Amino acid sequence: MSSQAGVRLGIDVGTSVVKAVAFDADGGALAVGGCPVELTHDGGGVAGAVEQDLEQVLARLGEVVHGVVAEAGVTPELVALTGQGDGCWVTDAEYRTVRPALSWLDGRAAGLLDEWTASGVTEQIYRVNGSALFPGAPAPLLAWLDRHEPAVLDRAETAGYCKDAVFGRLTGVRATDPSDSSMPFGDGTGAGYSDEVLSLTGLTHRRELLAPIVGPVPVAELTNSGARLLGLPAGLPVSSGPFDFPACGFGGGLSGVGDALLIVGTTLGCLVHVDRLHTSGEPAGFHVATGVPGRWLRAMPAMVGTASLDWLLRTLGLGVGAVQEALAASPPGARGVAVLPYLATAGERAPFVDPRASGQLTGVRMTTDRHDLVRAMCEGLAYAARHCFEAAGRPAPPSPDQAVGRLVVCGGGTRSRAWMSVFADVLGVQLELARTPEVGARGAVLVAAGARGIELDTAAWTAPDAVVEPDPRQRERYEDGYRRYLAQLAAARPLWSDPRPAELSTTSGAAE
């Protein structure tokens, strides 16, 4: 196989798919591949368990890389890793699993997190580093293991993140980058762990399980065993990080303060580039260190997204093609139908945290049709994104030409241009559709190249594929729709706190 200067391999170890792209010197894709990986839900009978097998992830990674490199017909000069964040990947000194990895989707630590919330621990952590907790975050998962499986941690060398476990197996180097380390154990600088957070979570005695932080990203050489796994030459430089959210930010070209990224995927990811930590207000979302001093991505990772739309389509017996049809048939405002799209079984984590959050349909009449329901869900998700951005400090501008910074969009939802128009109208700004394919892998390559002193034309690598303009004729309608959305949300939230039927609560109260 030939070697071609300027070819870099980007890898994204996702929750359900491992993907790889061979990029040429200008950021074009020479070859793209992907392979699914499994999530298991048995967890030895533990309620809420969602686990993954590192060995399977590595095997799938090897398959994908072999295929992409063969299709490209060239050997890359650099391998750049990104991947899913959060969760807890427990490995030994040889970077082999001590137990199956706990996914970020895992809910076994929900009760422990309730204890921390009631005692004020979660809020105190947020005041330290601007990161809210949810059951699948590393701190509650590690604390759960410390409480229920201490012998596992006693045998472990590292309790870390997915991409770092893969990096360890490929290079033999134990390290993490500022993005993953900044939450939830970060000290707010992006360069260190917080003694206070470790103490608050009762994990001071497990500090040695946290990998050293190397910025902007760790880079090491591919070992002989790593080379056999990937089918690449030993000694090839490999980088680890940032994790998928910030990697997408870099891949989308976020650079200036105020630039923002919207990921329309299974969940919504709303990120804003900021120059200070925001640790006041209601704890929600998190701050991701970028590896650049004084720069963070303030993230509001909602649990809602295309999964909510997919649920509605399945319930109605429709395919994804029905979205385009519905947005053409039902007018803006969905003939009065409105949706609170909080359908995730784990509740919501941004722009507020409530494990009991649930969805709501209002304004439905006998004249309502399926097109109205689909449009209402599309609009409800756009309102949720606007709410996240406002919570992250980037409100909708008075007019599109007054927007501060770019707003880049990526994710599977961008395949529907009509839906992107709804987002543009609700957010009131021009949307730049990120250059494809695989924005996260693209961002990982850009960061790795910078760490290696390789100059790339970042503007060309991150030039948008298309631009979607808001329709000024819809501004007033969607401003009113957003106000109604917030009012409905405010009315619904108190009802989530009591799972009992309303009539039972009323009767019980009267009897007392």
In short:
The protein is of the alpha/beta class. 37% of the residues lie in helices and 17% in strands.
Please describe what this structure looks like.
By secondary structure, this protein is α/β, with parallel strands linked by helices. The protein contains 18 helices and 21 strands. It has a 7-stranded mixed β-sheet, sandwiched between helices. It has a 6-stranded mixed β-sheet with strand order 4-3-2-7-12-11, sandwiched between helices. It has a two-stranded parallel ribbon with strand order 1-6. Helix 10 (244-251) packs across helix 15 (439-451), helix 12 crosses helix 13 (370-391) and helix 13 (370-391) packs across helix 14 (417-427). It is globular and about 65 Å long. The chain starts with a strand and ends with a helix. Mean pLDDT is 93; it is low at 500-512.
List keywords for this structure.
single chain, about 500 residues, alpha/beta, six-stranded mixed sheet, about 35% helix, globular, disordered C terminus
- Profile the largest sheet: 7 strands, mixed
Quick one: overall form?
A: globular
Q: What's the helical proportion of residues?
A: 25-40%
Poorly predicted regions = 500-512
Strand fraction band? 15-25%
Radius of gyration based on Cα positions: 23 Å
Q: Count of DSSP E strands?
A: 21
Strand order of the largest sheet: 15-16-14-13-19-20-21
Ends: how far apart? Answer: 80 Å
Q: Which structural class is indicated by helix and strand composition? A: alpha/beta
* Count of DSSP-assigned helices: 18
Mean pLDDT across the residues is 93
